[in-house]
């Protein structure tokens, strides 16, 4: 039977990661895959995670199954972290999932079960896996304009115009903060206007929030998600713990459905059903660490302090790169870098220019000129800035 299989499209970001590994040049710079790295290029285990692991190793006395929806304490802690008191706990259904990707996948499947004709509107551009999973599931998808490559800002007018074509019941997929791949985000005022548009047209928001704490702060980064969830009757939220807890390979995430009345239990039962169909029980180790950290004052304070350092480090690198490019180009062309938030910024270079940066300068970024800010340090910022100016002029 396997002879009938066909080649599948490769994940370009992961392919780039391999190319970087295979490059023998000592001066190579990796600005590809979205993983946080410190100034030495290392992805450390966060202090609170290490402590929680030690505590859990001492305390854990069974490896029996957890529930289909995951450990309720994890779900409670995450609902609290993402939604705080913006919605009543009784209005939230939730399941633990393998990472944010698992939450996205289960969210899409839930939509398909509830409303197979609904069109899913995704930003142009968006995280490539959104599109590939939707395609794999055979779900109708359309794009809305999002990014103005000239200014490096959100094309909000274009976004509104495109979404005005959506039909009642269509789903709008939004990045809760730190947009991947552009780094450009709506202002709170624009989020407010978007909420009105979704209310007027009876659109259903699905929010993917994979970088809470990487932009302006834990509460600041969740503000848009909380606004949407508290303003509309139904919201789906896929949250990832990979980045903000640095537990990428533990596969820790959660899908939340904010709903009204009887729909809450119906959503809960269907989400647990989806977990059972796809893998039975979600992974527990990463979820357990997150629960321990969020429910212990000392661990939580230490985690927040380290996350703040991570965030401020990336903000400092942004400002430094924008400053260096301003100096070299004598223009404000790259000022947007300082205004973007999260790990990523899209530089606005052509595929050829990105290719030249790789071949001639050993600088690796995604083909759409997305850079991972955390891949830089004080030594490589001038190198990158000089190379950008060289290929772009
Ligand atoms: N959503 C977005 C926009 C992402 O960038 C990512 C990647 O990190 C994820 C979801 C899911 O990440 P993970 O499955 O590793 O938690
Ligand atoms: O966009 C990124 O780089 C991260 C990590 O299939 C990632 O979201 C990349 C590709 C992928 C899964 C995660």
Automatic annotation (TrEMBL):
Domain Aminotransferase class I/classII large: from-to ranges: 28-388
Segments traversing the membrane: none
Cofactor: pyridoxal 5'-phosphate
Protein name (database record): Aspartate/tyrosine/aromatic aminotransferase
GO MF terms held by the record: transaminase activity
Entry keyword set: Aminotransferase, Pyridoxal phosphate, Transferase
Lineage: Bacteria, Pseudomonadati, Pseudomonadota, Alphaproteobacteria, Rhodobacterales
Domain of life: Bacteria
One Pfam family cited in the UniProt record for this chain: Aminotran_1_2
InterPro entries: Aminotransferase_I/II_large, Asp_trans, PyrdxlP-dep_Trfase, PyrdxlP-dep_Trfase_major, PyrdxlP-dep_Trfase_small
Positions in coiled-coil regions: none
Similarity-based family: Belongs to the class-I pyridoxal-phosphate-dependent aminotransferase family.
